[in-house]
Amino acid sequence: MTDEETIAQAEEPLDLSLTDAELGDRHEHITAFIREQMDAAGTETAVVAISGGVDSALVAGLAADALGPDRVHGLVMPSEVNDDETMSDAVRVAETFELPHDVIEVGPIVDAFLEAYPEGRNHQMAAGNVRVRTRAVLNYLVANTENGLVIGTGNRTEALIGYFTKYGDGAVDCHPIANLYKQQVRQLARHVGVPESVASRTPTAGMWVGQTDEEELGIEYDTLDSILALHVEGGVPVGATARGIGVEEAVVERVRALYEHSAHKRQVPPGPDAPY
């Protein structure tokens, strides 16, 4: 039986989970990476935006393990679109890993932007991106003040489909969990001691009231991970991928389109070739 035939008989999302040994190896590899990035830049403090979600919680824990809690500055940056439970969990994450942290309300800053250009209030995505980019500005304000690096919290799944705000949560100095699919993020989060209420929370980018990642994307993360691993990165044809995980071919094609159309987000802004 060929690999393609084996995949086609699965008819469920791929299990991309890591073994216990692999979790230990990833933990060691990522913490070493964080130390290397800090040493190379000659910086003292790692600045991590803690949202109450699993990605930022994992990165906060990894940074604490890599550097010691005293060298990590957590920023909790709520706005009117964030619920109290999520923000309480963000603070809880900082306290779990014994991180110095500040809570900074971004609402008034966002309001100032939208007052300067009121039309933006009527565009949900534009206003949501302002919230995310405001957090990025605050990250760098703290990092510049404390001779720090901004440590990113983006994972492999979101990067491949462009599910991040350009010059927002994508504006960082390094991406420690860039090689982890969302399934693996949850695994490693539990491994490093992230509270279960955070590890199992429904993901949200916190861009507007009631927003969730899976509802906005129209696909569950396990299925998305599977399509990315099989088709986008693995080269398995559309039909075999669709049959293997039990989805319509159109779903696979849509994920492929997300990957292709978001290429500009994963690249340095282009310029023309030299004319000579």
UniProtKB/TrEMBL annotation:
<keyword id="KW-0547">Nucleotide-binding</keyword>
<comment type="similarity">
    <text>Belongs to the NAD synthetase family.</text>
</comment>
<dbReference type="InterPro" id="IPR022310">
    <property type="entry name" value="NAD/GMP_synthase"/>
</dbReference>
<feature type="binding site">
    <location>
        <position position="55"/>
    </location>
    <ligand>
        <name>Mg(2+)</name>
    </ligand>
</feature>
<dbReference type="GO" id="GO:0008795">
    <property type="term" value="F:NAD+ synthase activity"/>
</dbReference>
<dbReference type="Pfam" id="PF02540">
    <property type="entry name" value="NAD_synthase"/>
</dbReference>
<feature type="binding site">
    <location>
        <begin position="49"/>
        <end position="56"/>
    </location>
    <ligand>
        <name>ATP</name>
    </ligand>
</feature>
<dbReference type="GO" id="GO:0003952">
    <property type="term" value="F:NAD+ synthase (glutamine-hydrolyzing) activity"/>
</dbReference>
<dbReference type="InterPro" id="IPR003694">
    <property type="entry name" value="NAD_synthase"/>
</dbReference>
<feature type="binding site">
    <location>
        <position position="158"/>
    </location>
    <ligand>
        <name>Mg(2+)</name>
    </ligand>
</feature>
<feature type="binding site">
    <location>
        <position position="153"/>
    </location>
    <ligand>
        <name>ATP</name>
    </ligand>
</feature>
<feature type="binding site" description="in other chain">
    <location>
        <position position="133"/>
    </location>
    <ligand>
        <name>deamido-NAD(+)</name>
    </ligand>
</feature>
<feature type="domain" description="NAD/GMP synthase">
    <location>
        <begin position="28"/>
        <end position="269"/>
    </location>
</feature>
<keyword id="KW-0436">Ligase</keyword>
<dbReference type="GO" id="GO:0005524">
    <property type="term" value="F:ATP binding"/>
</dbReference>
<keyword id="KW-0479">Metal-binding</keyword>
<comment type="subunit">
    <text>Homodimer.</text>
</comment>
<keyword id="KW-0460">Magnesium</keyword>
<feature type="binding site">
    <location>
        <position position="182"/>
    </location>
    <ligand>
        <name>ATP</name>
    </ligand>
</feature>
<dbReference type="GO" id="GO:0046872">
    <property type="term" value="F:metal ion binding"/>
</dbReference>
<keyword id="KW-0067">ATP-binding</keyword>
<dbReference type="GO" id="GO:0009435">
    <property type="term" value="P:NAD+ biosynthetic process"/>
</dbReference>
<dbReference type="GO" id="GO:0005737">
    <property type="term" value="C:cytoplasm"/>
</dbReference>
<comment type="function">
    <text>Catalyzes the ATP-dependent amidation of deamido-NAD to form NAD. Uses ammonia as a nitrogen source.</text>
</comment>
<feature type="binding site">
    <location>
        <position position="173"/>
    </location>
    <ligand>
        <name>deamido-NAD(+)</name>
    </ligand>
</feature>
<dbReference type="InterPro" id="IPR022926">
    <property type="entry name" value="NH(3)-dep_NAD(+)_synth"/>
</dbReference>
<keyword id="KW-0520">NAD</keyword>
<feature type="binding site" description="in other chain">
    <location>
        <position position="166"/>
    </location>
    <ligand>
        <name>deamido-NAD(+)</name>
    </ligand>
</feature>
<feature type="binding site">
    <location>
        <position position="204"/>
    </location>
    <ligand>
        <name>ATP</name>
    </ligand>
</feature>
<comment type="pathway">
    <text>Cofactor biosynthesis; NAD(+) biosynthesis; NAD(+) from deamido-NAD(+) (ammonia route): step 1/1.</text>
</comment>
<protein>
    <recommendedName>
        <fullName>NH(3)-dependent NAD(+) synthetase</fullName>
        <ecNumber>6.3.1.5</ecNumber>
    </recommendedName>
</protein>
<dbReference type="InterPro" id="IPR014729">
    <property type="entry name" value="Rossmann-like_a/b/a_fold"/>
</dbReference>
<feature type="binding site" description="in other chain">
    <location>
        <begin position="264"/>
        <end position="265"/>
    </location>
    <ligand>
        <name>deamido-NAD(+)</name>
    </ligand>
</feature>
<dbReference type="GO" id="GO:0004359">
    <property type="term" value="F:glutaminase activity"/>
</dbReference>
